Amino acid sequence: MIVEAMKRVQQIRQRREYQHIRSRQKSAEKMERDKERREVARDMALIRSPAAGLRRARVTVQQQSDQHMEEAEPDRRRRLADREPEPAQSSQHERMVAEAV
C-alpha cells in the first residue's frame, strides 16, 4: 500500500512539474512573439521593398486614369455624334450601306 501511494505521489509530482514547465513555455512564447512583432514594426524599411510603394502608386495612377477615361467617354461620344461625318467617312458609310442592302 505504501508503494502504491509513493507511485501515486510521483505521478502527481510529474504532472504538476509538466504543467509548470508548459505554462512557463507559453508565457515565453508569447513574449518572443511580441518581441518579434516590435522588431518587424521597427525595421519595416528593411523588409519592405522601396519599389513596392512605386508599384502601388503606379496602380493608383492607372486606376485614376481609367476612371477619368470612363467619365470622359460619354462626353466624347456626344461630341462625335454632334459632328457631321467627314466626306471620306460618309462615302465609306454609303458604300457599306449599299453593300448591306
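That was protein one. Protein two is written in the same sequence-then-structure order:
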Amino acid sequence: MASSMKFLFVLGLVLLIGAVVDGAGECGKSSPDNEAMKLAPCVGAAQDANASVPGGCCAQIKRFSQNPKCLCAVLLSDTAKASGVQPETALTIPKRCNFANRPIGYKCGPYTLP
C-alpha cells in the first residue's frame, strides 16, 4: 500500500512539473502577443526613433528589460508587427528611457539591443 502511494505521489509530482515547464515560454505563462498589448503607450516611440518615450512606456519596458528573451519576443511578435512597430526602433526604447541596467548587446533575432 505504501509503495503504491509513493508511486502516485511521484507520478503526480512529475506531471505537475511537466505542466509548469510546458506552460512557460519566453514570457512565462503569457504569450508574447498578449504581453505586446501592454505596450500600447510605446507605439509612437516604437515607430519613430525621434519621438519622445512616454513614462508609461518606460514603466512597461522596464518590466521586460529584466527578461531580454521576453522583450525580444514581444517586440518581434505578430501583435507588435500589426501595430506598425519597427523592431530596430523599438529596441532603442530601453536606451531612450535611460535604463542603466538594460541588456546591452543582447541579440534579438537579427537585431542587437543598443
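The first strand starts at residue 107 and ends at 108. Keep this in mind for the problem set.
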